[in-house]
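EI: anyone free to look at a 504-residue chain?
SC: sure, send it
EI:
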Amino acid sequence: MEKKPTYEELEHKIKKLEESERKYRHLFETAMVGMYRTRISDGKFLAANQTLAKLIGYESVDQLISEYVTSEHYTDSKRREELLKQINSKGRVDGFEIEMQRTDGSIFQIAISSAAYPDKGYLEGVVIDITDQKQAEEALRENEKLYRLLADNVTDVIWVRDMNLRPTYFSPSITNQTGYTVEETMARTLEEALTPDSLKLALEVFAEELEIENSEQKDLFRSRTIELEIKCKDGSTIWTEMKMSFLRDQLGNSTGVIGVTRDITDRKNLEAQLKQAQKMEAIGTLAGGIAHDFNNVLYSIIGYTELTMDDLPKDSVAQKNLNEVFRGAMRAKDMVRQILAFSRKAETKKQPVKIQSIVKEAINLLRSSIPSTIEICHNIDADCSPVLADSTQIHQMVMNLSTNAYQAMREMGGVLELTLMEEEVGSDDPDLDLDPGTYLKLTVSDTGHGIDRVLVEKIFDPYFTTRGPEWALQWYTGLSKATAGILKYTANLGKALYFMSIFP
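SC: here you go
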């Protein structure tokens, strides 16, 4: 038979229980989270701590218990039904999120962890205020939407790669820039995206940045800008400027690379044009200086030739030979004038000229310099009207075109044909971008191998040649601007030149 406790033992146990209750009551009252007990039937509070009372908007727990019924303050009544459903099925819930109203009508959000005691008819649990957290999450989502909207609509391409340089994000503007969709771009390797030289540069820069990353004195906010050539879907390439920096985790550590790519192809083209213009200016300055010195030499040649011709019989062979020397020297004098015009040291003079005589003169010069394996044919209309032009420029064009034709046939021989005739150009002519009117059409054709398509766009570059260094300064600068434009336009029409007749 169990021995009954003495009065002293009972008193001691009661004191321990009271002490334990005071301890847990203190913890209950001072807890940083809300603690509660509510009736299952209607959600009326049976017990709560001061933290929960203040969260809901009451000064005292007694006021909360007497006035507030949770079921009446859910912003969405279905959430309470879901809460009870989960508690009934599982016996408890953890972190169940609810949006409720305070006494003043303001909204707050809580996460509930609760257990049910059906036999006693109540729920017990804790409440955590997650209002600030939810607002921060919403702000983060809005910011993310904003940044994604910006990334999806900027002209430049925003991209992210991991530390193995595998793509993890590309903005939709990549399609406008390269022709590849985002999905296609994400599937491409760095080797497939860049030209060999640019790939080498990109890997070198990445290796340098990794080395800096391992140093203690690294700048966490540094970035790097380089120019890379990117392959496009249509087989072409574009030049881009990439500004890159490392992505970092909270321990400030690099987790990837983020960059912005801008298409600078137009800028590179302008830079190339500027360099070309600078070269042309340098050539012009050099040509002007040489032309002046060469002019002095020509004056001596012309002067002494005229003096010697005066001392010889007019029908002698020597007289005829010197006459050709004189004509050649005068032609050289005109060419010097063209060089000075090119170097902006003299102006080109245009006057009415009959092209027929110029073409015939050029043909006579060609016969003496072109091998007999090349036949020269011509069909020159003697009734062609004059044109306003520089006779020396016309002569030079015919000689240059004919010389190029000879170069194309010098090994196998062939036929060089020059044709000059008048032609009416209408406003509806699809092949000619010329004003309607009467034109003189000069055609130089040959039976040679023709011009490679790759070289066609380069033939008007004064620095371009396929003949080696000794021809590097071969030039076409004697052409007037208008005539050069016509020559370039008609390059694909069979070397036909059109000159507006001044007497249509």
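EI: The chain is about 45% helix and 25% strand.
SC: 👍
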